[in-house]
User: Which sequence fits this backbone?
């Protein structure tokens, strides 16, 4: 079981969290301008690295906030946790390593 | 004196060094890679073939799956492909001259909610129209067919009925791999273990071979059959796939007297259970939610599936878990596989079988061999092309495949 440090609540069991897949996937600014191939890429294609992976987690059974985690997909070691809280000056705030 | 241990089997295939080039190089000696090699030789007379395996033969998901074989999928395209597979399973023990304990003991898919009942009856009707054997059982008939299922109305999720596919069942996975490997080897296919593919040899846009841990190997065509590692390999060829790799776990109990006559799957309480020939209860459930390549998942998945198993089978209350393990499964957005050519010339793709590709082993090999040999998909795999994610013609099997295997 993963032990994930929620940026607001601290370390909690994986059971309290909901997985959200790859982080930093922006909704296309102008979807109508996309070709079918580009739209398919946005909808269906995500990175799937064997190694460090930036991904979204939500503290579903806690504060219900979303944040990003960099986790190694082989060792499952969590390398970084980042919140995207709007009040943070730069939008991201590294919390633990 | 205790029983004598059986003789160690003779080696079933050669251990050749790689040649400089082959007509076809298959990457991955799991079930799908081996079946593809077998049918390339048997159906198409193509025998100048190597299967390259980074570990040992059939040590990936082929060694880790829970061996459920069935064809009662909802969509026509899937039912046709899996039914072709089931028909091949029915003839393969004879054809491969190897008894891999294929046992058509039936599969029950339990319904616990009104929605389950509607989904199940719809699937039974769809299956019958598609020529797949399927029956709807009410609660009493479920009890008759599998007396150890708790059909009491008092439980949290009472059994309201089930779909039954009588021709479904299980087989012994490692023997299936060895049977296919032996025949492929007899046809002259080189099975090369301890040979990791680390890149592709290109001539302009075309792939003309692979780089490996044992040196470069030329190839007329390169066919990926790397299951959980498909994205990693595709990445080396500059392709991004609509695939995510997840841990999928399973477990077995100690050996018990035969108590379980069939295979029971429940999407709703989320577990499936069969009893293997030796006597161990074999169970599994869904994937871990996160991406992973570590061949292990989180303990709560195991806990959850055992709780579900006890709810359905109170008789298992005193059984012990002997072993748990995980594999890496390649999951697509519509829970259907991808089989066909790729945008890279001479590079072919077979992946995305996710949690349920063991049952497809023969058909996957059959249609993939056809695709590689002719350059065109077989009618059975044409709908499963990579392009469906662009055209939108998805084959949504989440209902039939989500927990299911
Ligand atoms: C716990 C579990 C339970 C399952 N239960 C069922 C079930 O009940 N019924 C069912 O139908 N399906 C089931 N499945 C799914 C099924 O096992 C897979 O869909 C199927 O085995 C995948 O095809 P394969 O046998 O070719 O894969 P694998 O056996 O994984 O073969 C892929 C091979 O490619 C090799 N490889 C990877 N990268 C490279 C490289 N760079 N160079 C060389 N070789 C490479 C790997 O080492 C591996 O041996 C289950 C899977 C798991 C993990
Ligand atoms: Zn929190």
Assistant:
């Amino acid at each position: 079981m993963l032990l994930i440090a929620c940026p607001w609540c601290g370390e909690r069991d994986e059971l309290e969290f909901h997985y959200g897949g790859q982080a930093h996937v922006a909704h296309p600014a102008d979807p109508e301008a996309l070709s079918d191939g580009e739209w398919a890429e946005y909808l269906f294609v995500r990175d799937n690295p064997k190694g460090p992976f930036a991904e979204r987690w939500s503290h579903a059974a806690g504060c219900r906030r979303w944040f990003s985690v960099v986790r190694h997909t082989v060792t499952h070691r969590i390398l970084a946790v980042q919140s995207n809280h709007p009040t943070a000056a730069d939008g991201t705030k590294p919390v633990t390593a | 004196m205790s029983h004598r241990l059986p003789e160690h089997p003779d080696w079933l295939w050669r251990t050749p060094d790689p040649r400089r080039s082959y007509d076809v190089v298959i990457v991955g000696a799991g079930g799908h890679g081996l079946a593809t090699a077998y049918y390339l030789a048997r159906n198409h007379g193509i025998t100048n073939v190597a299967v390259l395996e980074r570990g040992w033969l059939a040590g990936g998901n082929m060694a880790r799956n829970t061996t459920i074989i069935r064809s009662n999928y909802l969509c026509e395209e899937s039912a046709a492909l899996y039914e072709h597979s089931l028909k091949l399973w029915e003839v393969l023990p004879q054809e491969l001259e190897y008894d891999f304990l294929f046992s058509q003991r039936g599969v029950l898919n339990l319904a616990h909610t009104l929605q389950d009942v509607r989904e199940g009856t719809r699937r039974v009707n769809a299956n019958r129209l598609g020529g797949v054997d399927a029956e709807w059982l009410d609660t009493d008939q479920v009890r008759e067919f599998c007396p150890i299922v708790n059909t009491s109305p008092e439980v949290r999720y009472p059994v309201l009925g089930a779909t039954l596919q009588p021709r479904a069942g299980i087989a012994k996975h490692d023997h299936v791999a060895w049977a296919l490997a032996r025949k492929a080897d007899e046809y002259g296919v080189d099975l090369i273990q301890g040979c990791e593919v680390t890149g592709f040899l290109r001539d302009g846009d075309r792939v003309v071979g692979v780089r490996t841990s044992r040196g470069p190997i030329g190839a007329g065509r390169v066919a990926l059959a790397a299951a959980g590692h498909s994205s990693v390999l595709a990445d080396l060829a500059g392709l991004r796939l609509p695939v995510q790799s997840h841990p999928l776990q399973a477990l077995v109990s100690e050996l018990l007297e035969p108590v379980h006559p069939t295979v029971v799957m429940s999407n709703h309480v989320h577990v499936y259970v069969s009893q293997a020939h030796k006597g161990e209860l074999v169970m599994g459930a869904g994937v871990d939610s996160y991406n992973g390549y570590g061949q292990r998942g989180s303990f709560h998945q195991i806990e959850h599936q055992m709780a579900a198993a006890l709810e359905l089978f109170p008789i298992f209350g005193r059984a012990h878990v002997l072993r748990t393990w995980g594999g890496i499964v390649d999951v697509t957005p519509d829970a259907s596989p991808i089989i066909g050519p790729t945008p890279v010339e001479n590079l072919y793709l077979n992946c995305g079988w996710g949690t349920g590709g063991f049952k497809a082993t023969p058909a996957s090999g059959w249609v993939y061999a056809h695709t590689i040999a002719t350059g065109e998909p077989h009618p059975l795999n044409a709908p499963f092309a990579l392009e469906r994610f662009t055209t939108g013609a998805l084959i949504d099997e989440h209902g039939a495949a989500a927990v299911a295997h």
